[in-house]
Amino acid sequence: MPPSLPTAVQIPDVDLNVPLVPVRISGSGQLPLPKDRDRASWLASSVTPGERGSAILAGHVDSADGPAAFYNLSAAKPGMQVAVARRDGTTARFTIDAVAVYPKDKIPDALVYGPTPGPSLRLITCTGWNPNEREYRDNVVVYATPHTKYSPK
């Protein structure tokens, strides 16, 4: 698909439907998440969903106020469909191939963020709450590849 900014991501089988905002890697090398917990981020230095390469989306799982944008992402399973609405009115459609959990300090960067021969999508959030440390230990990464090449809205 030609480049077009993503505006929302949806996984109907897990009741996930959230708007996207573009972000850039921070000065400390971190992938920022939106301040609004009900939105997810698209890494603007990655390709737009549907282009050749890995499009990266990330969102909060929860906040002090309750569930957030990617709260249901951990329930995603291989075979489920993902739709990414794009500014040009098209929808990039993907099928989930795998779901993996990695310790936060052991993310396989080349696998998650690296180039791919065709279009691919990565959705990332936290999991594995550690009540003693009051933080999440792990990240969930959902891997998806195109379901169809091009789909007008």
Q: How do you describe this structure in short?
A:
The chain has 153 residues and is mainly beta.
Strand order of the largest sheet: 1-2-3-4-9-10-8-7
- Report the CATH C-level class: Mainly Beta
Could you give the distance between the termini? 14 Å
Proportion of helical residues: under 10%
**Stretches with pLDDT under 50, minimum 5 residues:** 149-153
Largest sheet: 8 strands, mixed, barrel
Find the CATH superfamily.
Sortase
Which outline best applies? globular
Number of helical regions:
1
Order of helices and strands: EEEEEEEEHEE
Number of DSSP E strands: 10
Mean pLDDT level: 91
Named CATH architecture: Beta Barrel
**CATH topology call:** Sortase, Chain: A
The tally of domains stands at 1
Strand residue content: over 45%
Structural class: mainly beta
What Rg is obtained from the alpha carbons, in whole angstroms? 14 Å
Protein traits:
8-stranded mixed beta barrel, mainly beta, two-stranded antiparallel sheet, Sortase, Chain: A, 1 helix, 153 residues, disordered C terminus, globular
Please explain how this structure is put together.
The chain is mainly beta and 153 residues long. The protein has a single domain (6-148), classed as Sortase, Chain: A (Beta Barrel). The protein has 1 helix and 10 strands, in the order ββββββββαββ. It has one helix spanning 109-113; strands at residues 6-11, 16-23, 40-43, 53-59, 62-63, 66-67, 81-86, 91-103, 119-130, 135-148. The strands form 2 sheets. The protein has an 8-stranded mixed β-barrel. Strands 5-6 form a two-stranded antiparallel ribbon. Strand 1 (6-11) and strand 2 (16-23) form a beta hairpin. The longest helix has 5 residues, at 109-113. The radius of gyration is 14 Å and the shape is globular. The relative contact order is 0.22. Residues 149-153 have low confidence and may be disordered.
